[in-house]
Specification:
It is a single chain. The protein is mainly alpha-helical. The protein has one domain. Helix content is 78%, strand content 0%. Helix 8 runs parallel beside helix 10. The longest helix is centred in the middle third of the chain and has 32 residues. The radius of gyration is 20 Å and the shape is globular. It comes from Tetragenococcus halophilus subsp. halophilus. Keywords: Membrane, Transmembrane, Transmembrane helix. This is YhfC family intramembrane metalloprotease. InterPro entries: YhfC (IPR011397).
Length: 264
């Protein structure tokens, strides 16, 4: 049986994650017109490029076994890191680039970049972050009956993992996913500028490098090169802050973000 405190914390973390997404949506909507089509395109392109195409490549290159274990992580960890961070960067930034090319005819305004970024990053937050919290919450509630069918069928390792999870570990999802949402919005802005402004194409390959760099600490944790979560999340927040500052400078240089007037 999973402790009631873990069920409560899971529910609270899920609520906070959804609240942060909605707060970001309403904040952006106050500043700029968030149109539905670019937002839906962001959702669709994340699913197609990241969850379908990228995962398909992973199954070929990484060849995980039936338990999901990847031999390459142990035999060639450096290659695994480089492959992982650049695969994510290339697939997701290419998704943005193609999407903005397609949207350029009917949705060329700056708000398209924010709407797409919110859709792309929001669905990632809700699927990867909210999905894991919701799954844990449902299983934890069903496991309140230790003699129930689920308790008999679930592997003991899953039950023990839930029982041994601390409240702090649950909130890691919130701590990680919110800055990632901001990163996805900023990268969407940079690629939008690359597509829609002359002599700014350099921002597209730069966005791939930035994406890979931000994913680097997480990849290092996977292979055991980094185990300090303070360093992991500290670096994530520092890089997110740096990316926000850089994105604001790009907007100002392209006269898209007059500081006193707000976003157009």
């Amino acid at each position: 049986m999973v402790p009631d405190s873990i069920i409560i914390v899971n529910a609270l973390a899920l609520f906070i994650l959804i609240a942060l997404f909605l707060a970001t949506f309403f904040l952006l909507r106050r500043k700029v017109s968030i149109q539905v089509i670019p937002l839906l395109v962001g959702i669709a392109f994340f699913i197609i490029f990241s969850l379908v195409l990228e995962q398909g490549l992973h199954s070929i290159v990484l060849q995980p076994n039936a338990q999901g274990q990847i031999t390459l992580m142990n035999t060639h960890p450096l290659f695994y890191i480089l492959y992982g961070i650049f695969a994510a960067g290339i697939f997701e930034e290419l998704a943005r680039f193609i999407a903005f090319k397609l949207l350029k005819q009917g949705y060329a305004n700056f708000g398209t970049s924010l709407a797409y970024g919110l859709g792309h990053g929001g669905i990632e937050m809700l699927i990867l972050g909210g999905g894991s919290l919701l799954g844990n919450l449902i299983i934890s509630i069903l496991l309140r009956n230790p003699n129930g069918q689920l308790a008999q069928e679930l592997p003991s390792s899953i039950i023990q993992a839930l029982q041994n999870t601390s409240a702090g570990e649950i909130f890691y999802v919130v701590i990680e996913r919110f800055p990632v949402l901001l990163v996805q919005i900023c990268l969407s802005v940079l690629v939008w500028v690359a597509v829609n402004k002359t002599k700014q194409f350099w921002l597209f390959p730069l966005s791939i490098l930035i994406h890979a760099l931000i994913d680097l600490p997480g990849a290092m944790v996977q292979v055991g090169f980094l185990s300090n979560y303070a360093v992991l999340y500290g670096s994530l927040y520092l890089m997110t802050a740096g990316l926000i500052f850089f994105t604001m400078r790009i907007l100002k240089n392209n006269e898209l973000y007059p500081l006193k007037k707000g976003l157009p």
